[in-house]
Design brief:
The protein is mostly helical. 63% of the residues lie in helices and 0% in strands. The two termini are 35 Å apart.
């Protein structure tokens, strides 16, 4: 259980990615030249479909800014060590850039996109608000749940999705946008796993049990939102290729429903469930009990 923090705890151990994220200088690729996009090369239907997906990504990235800002505030109230807050501040900056890249790509594809494609609702979070006050353990437990969902699940899934988008894209602008975002995704996922590992020893047994229950619900939510309604059984024995198509089949950074589903289930099986088990979760039980 956590003790009352002292000034020494502000510095904390600066180990691994968790300690280096806010210290390392970041090399940025040149900003894509959206004005140079040759829109007339592509059919309107193709551009509209791409705009829908890029606009959805922009809203998701903006939502991540909102989520990580909330987590940062809660952990600052809990007086965690600076490396953890430094990592979160880096994530927020990255997500702002990602949201801008995706929104710009959507509007480059379809400047006259429909009102539905251009919608910009207030961001929401897939968890309850943090507990009031500054009592340390409840805040740490809440933040652990948020990082479990946003990073260990969300950011871990984002990396292979962006890899596939970059491979599928035949247009250089779409590929450049995907690769700029992809450069950050591995670090984001790594941060989440390391941050959760650092927080878990501070939690009570009851808080750990609530995390297990939250994991079960979150796995079901991600399946519903990411697998596009395709059950894993429908993918058994099927080969779903990722990569550039024929010259007469241009791609502006879109994936099919089958791509999303295949990447989701593969990442769950090979990365997420094993990683959760290493942290002490009953990952297989959570997956088996997920709401479908």
């Amino acid at each position: 259980m956590s003790q009352r923090p002292a000034l020494d705890d502000m510095l904390g151990p600066a180990q691994g990615s968790l300690g280096a994220m806010h210290r390392a200088q970041v090399r940025r690729d040149p900003w894509p030249d959206f004005a140079a996009f040759e829109r007339e090369r592509y059919p309107a239907a193709l551009r509209r479909a791409a705009a829908v997906q890029w606009a959805g990504r922009a809203r998701a990235e903006y939502g991540s800014v909102h989520q990580f800002s909330q987590v940062t505030h809660a952990l600052a109230s809990a007086r965690v060590a600076l490396p953890l807050l430094g990592g979160l501040s880096r994530l927020i900056t990255d997500e702002v850039r990602h949201a801008e890249l995706c929104a710009a790509m959507a509007l480059a594809c379809d400047p006259k996109a429909s009102e539905h494609t251009r919608r910009f609702p207030p961001p929401t979070t897939p968890w309850q608000d943090p507990p009031p006050g500054d009592e340390r353990e409840p805040l740490l437990a809440w933040a652990a749940g948020a990082l479990l969902v946003a990073c260990c699940l969300g950011e871990t899934l984002s990396r292979p999705m962006l890899e596939a988008i970059a491979l599928q894209a035949s247009d250089p602008l779409a590929e450049a946008v995907a690769r700029q975002i992809l450069r950050d995704e591995h670090l984001h996922a790594t941060f989440g796993w390391e941050a959760l590992e650092a927080l878990l020893p501070e939690l009570s047994g009851a808080s750990r049990a609530r995390l297990q229950a939250q994991l079960t619900q979150a796995l079901g939510s991600f399946e519903r939102s990411t697998a596009c309604g395709i059950p894993v059984e429908d993918l058994v024995g099927r080969e779903i290729n990722v990569g550039p198509g024929e010259e007469d089949q241009p791609n502006l950074g879109t994936l099919s429903d089958e791509h999303y589903a295949a990447i989701f289930f593969a990442t769950i099986e090979h990365e997420i469930l094993p990683g959760l088990a290493e942290l002490g979760f009953d990952a297989q039980a959570a997956w088996a009990a997920r709401p479908r």
